[in-house]
Amino acid sequence: MSGGFALFIVGWIVIMVGLMSIGGFFMFRKFLKRLPKEDGKSIIDWEEYYVDKTKHMWSAEQKDLLEELISPVPELFRDVARQKIAGRIGELALQKKKKKITQEILIEGYIRATPKRDHKFLVKKLEEKKIDMSPYDPLIER
Fold this sequence. Notes:
- By secondary structure, the protein is mostly helical.
- It has helices at 3-34, 43-54, 60-69, 75-95, 103-113, 119-128.
- Helix 4 crosses helix 5 (103-113).
- The chain crosses the membrane at residues 6-28.
- This is DUF2621 family protein.
């Protein structure tokens, strides 16, 4: 066996182990989110509960705004992001006893559901739409 071929095989093994590790990490995270908590429901169960409970509260305009806000998320992960963010928005709407999802609830829920590093895009998008950000300043890290 030549040295070049052996190097190729070792490199290929390193790449495969790396890719399998990355995939395993994401599968393990999903598994952990499916584990029931003290109340008997998992994180994903609660997200689904809030989305189902508030499905009738969403207007077409608010659905469109949510789709616009999650547009930078890679398509592969967009469904997961939509579920997580919509669940958080639904939870806020129920906590505040709202009858419908308003723009304020949607923006606050989006901020609370997304990592701080993603807030830059939100601020930029809301400034383009000329939406006042001052009520959300305490929630956003710039």
